[in-house]
């Protein structure tokens, strides 16, 4: 695998080696020892998967305090724009974001450490999104920042009227009001 450090410390893009032949393809999606050598010690405890249609925007989500989560995300089917927003107050990149396109074609993965809000926008007719987390889901520690917060200024590639959001995502807080790390 090829590990690429993004413009924000701790956030990585991972490109697997994919072997194609007449039968299809093979790739290693996760190799603990290699991951630890490149990124560090992360103990994943839960795998999650979602299916969404075009225009669905999930995020920007995070869990507060001791319940924060690191995530290793990828797309099995379709295409998404995946976004990580730095919520670490002492970071020189606080409030900045990294966005990457993840798809079934490029098979890239995106590692987002603790201390970040995360979201994705579906760009294909349908997307199946899967991710590993290093802490279990804790509903009482869940938080959401508005996807359209002007302080962050995420450049979403479709118009807001094409987006499908949950009530929670429509009413998230601003970065200024968010409980950060």
Architecture overview:
The protein has about 180 residues and is mainly beta. The protein has one domain (about 45-170): Jelly Rolls (Sandwich). It has two helices and 13 strands. It has helices at about 30-40, 165-170; strands at about 1-5, 10-15, 20, 25, 45-55, 55-65, 70-75, 80-85, 95-105, 110, 115-120, 125-135, 140-145. The chain has a six-stranded antiparallel β-sheet, with no helix packed on it. A five-stranded antiparallel β-sheet has the order 9-8-11-6-13, with no helix packed on it. Strands 3-4 form a two-stranded antiparallel ribbon. A hairpin with a 6-residue loop joins strand 1 and strand 2. The protein is globular. The mean pLDDT is about 95.
